[in-house]
Amino acid sequence: MKNLIAEFFGTFWLVFCGCGSALFAAGYPELGIGFAGVSLAFGLTVVTMAYAVGHISGGHFNPAVSLGLWAGGRFDSKDLVPYIIAQCAGAIVAAGFLYLILSGKAGFAIDNTKAGAFASNGYGAFSPDGYSIVSAFVTEFILTMFFLLIILGTTDKFANTKFAGLAIGLALVLIHLVSIPVTNTSVNPARSLSQAIFAGGEPLMQVWMFWVAPIAGAIAGGFIYKSFLETKAA
Questions:
Q1: Half-sphere exposure (CA, 13 Å, Cβ side) for 98?
Q2: How many CB atoms lie within 10 A of CB 158?
Q3: Which of 47, 116, 151, 231 is buried most, with the most CB atoms less than 10 Å from its CB?
Q4: Distance CA 190, CA 87 (A)
Q5: Element (H, E) at 106
Q6: How far is Cα 64 from Cα 61, in angstroms, rounded to an integer?
Q7: Which domains, ranges and CATH numbers included, belong to the chain?
Q8: 70 near 80, Cβ under 8 Å?
Q9: How far is CA 124 from CA 43, 71, 74, 129, 183, in A?
């Protein structure tokens, strides 16, 4: 049970601080942190919780990561559904607290006719810079695939795992620096679902893509590492 609680809180932290940085601080007049700041915030959530609870649950905080680790032979299939439920629950509760905080600001309302509503992900007219569904899918697929290659590589029994949490967090920073203009960056179905639920409308209608593309990319990354990169025991 401790591992599921760890996944709940780890995913909560990722959504609350990552999406919170986008909602509260990214566009703050003159002092806003912008894309670079949001990218760093997401990376720091993973670094901090990887070292805080990674030893308890493995520090997935992402359904795509759990499925990618399963494809790479590092995670038991019987734990997949409980992990994904815990991750989605943590993300949704975090989004609820973000909504509660934002509702305390005069004039607050979610405009779900615009890209990035409530830090949601999207494609087409709901992509921050108008990228098509194909562009969005390819971006999410490739970035999640490499995310899994990095996770599997840095946590390999032959790697220096002391710095794995830092490398994985920095990878997420880099992922956001590339893809915020394209999809507002998902690579995490739980993060996408939580924001889409509160945004509603078209962001919720498009959330399927931010499950399919990251999961497909993660499974591909897990398969590639296991088949071609992993050092086999002599």
A1: 33
A2: 8
A3: 151
A4: 6
A5: none
A6: 9
A7: 2-106+115-229 (1.20.1080.10)
A8: yes
A9: 26, 31, 36, 9, 9
Cα separation, 79 vs 86, whole angstroms: 11
Contact 22, 38 (CB under 8 A): yes
Cβ of 167: how many Cβ atoms within 10 Å?
18
Q: Give the alpha-carbon dihedral of 48, 49, 51, 56, to 10 degrees.
A: 170
What pLDDT, on the 0 to 100 scale, is given for residue 231?
A: 85
Residue type at position 60: H
Please name the amino acid found at residue 117. Answer: A
Instruction: Determine the residue type at 52.
Output: A
- Residue 166, class by beta-carbon neighbours within 10 Å (0-12 exposed, 13-18 middle, 19+ buried)? middle
115, amino acid identity: A
Q: How far separated are the first and last CA of the chain, in Å rounded?
A: 35
pLDDT value of residue 234: 56
- What is the pTM (predicted TM-score) of this model? 0.96
Residue pointed to by tokens 């359904």: 63
Contact 152, 221 (CB under 8 A): yes
Question: Contact, 103 vs 177, CB < 8 A?
Answer: no
* Nearest partner of 122 among 140, 108, 144, judged by Cα: 140
Residue with tokens 């990218």: 39
